[in-house]
Amino acid sequence: MKSLIAILTIFTLAPAVLRAEARDFLITESGAVGDGKTLNTAAIQRAIDKAAASEGGGRVVAPAGVFRSGSIFLKEGVALWLDKDAVLLGSTDIADYPKRDTRIEGHVESWPMALVNAQNMKHVRIGGPGKIDGNGMPFWTEFWRRRRKDPKVTNLAVERPRLIFIDTCADVRVSDVVLRNSGFWHLHLYRCRDVVIDGLDISSTEATSTGATPRLRAPSTDGIDIDSSQNVTVRRCRFAVDDDCIALKGSKGPLADRDASSPPVENVLVEKCVFVAGAGVVTFGSEATVVRGVIVRDCDVNGRMSVVRLKLRPDTPQTYENILYENIRLGANGGAVISARPWLQFFDLQGQKPPMSVVRNLTVRNVSGAFGSFGTLGANAGAGELAGETAGKYTIDGVVFENLDLRLGQPRLSAGPMVRNLQMRNVKINGEEYKK
Length: 436
Known about the structure:
By secondary structure, the protein is mostly beta strands. The protein has one domain (2-433): 3 Solenoid (Pectate Lyase C-like). It contains three helices and 35 strands. The strands form three sheets. The chain has a 22-stranded mixed sheet that branches. Strands 5-10-13-16-19-22-25-27-29-31-33 form an eleven-stranded parallel sheet. The protein is globular. The protein starts with a helix and ends with a strand. 50% of the residues are buried.
């Protein structure tokens, strides 16, 4: 673990700012109109194409204004920059997001592309201080309408665009921009390497660009999805979403470990972030195979969520290993320190026997604070569980809780029969030493 910290510390010293470009290309000079109504997809793409064709590339700039658009596609040597008071606003017409074979929920299928796309590139640069707003309310409304009609409707039954999709890219920097109200995931990284995400403000629960406040849950609005990617740093970001804040993803199904399109998620560092709303701080799964070398440190959890969330699919062979959460401060009205349990949503063994999965070498240390007001917490706020409902499908080996000083409504950790080598070192809950 010490060597991993050293590697990630060196990696994060790389600058996370947009590099100096040969020249700026204002989208308004290519015909974009910032009135919040005009569809500017073609005009913005013209600016990107013009920058890509120029010697040395360039930086495509959105000035102050609200620029409505469908899918745009960055090109090699072209950065995207949003000035202060600039808003790239997603169209609410799904036809403005062309369908292509793309990675979504652990496999490839024909699905609408994101609002902003970068594929097979090096030196991807997207920066603020402006805003990218997915305008997702109509897509959420349609999803819930379908779900009410048929409770078995899957997440992909209603086509919804992601906000940013970065596919098979290296040397990626996304800095300081505000991300709001994606129809689906906000920032999806697939098969990327050497990524720094710095200073983002991501929310699907707060005011929209039109001033309205969402009045319904925003389904599948993960903050950042790190899918089959390596050497990723997420720092100084703020999350207020209606699904997982950060999700580590791969493939799924009983043969997922043979999927060459899903290399392991490796070497992920999350630091100095604030988690205001979401299901989990950093969640492993639901579709994931091998995830190793993850550090989450120096973060504040101010919303009701699970700090450590491990989704264990009964239909997928999974390995989650070498994981460290440290220096975490809790100040929320409910939540769980850890949730490691079966994830039963839409799983399918495809006629195969249930595979074995393993979690190994997980350390949670230097965690302080409370989930809610002492003495008033509900049944779901507390220490949490380690595969409390499982037997024979998962092995959880080498879990250490160290230097915890917490106030919890449910102080007991539920540990299942397949948990081995569970250690508690200097753990105090509600002022008393924890005893297994």
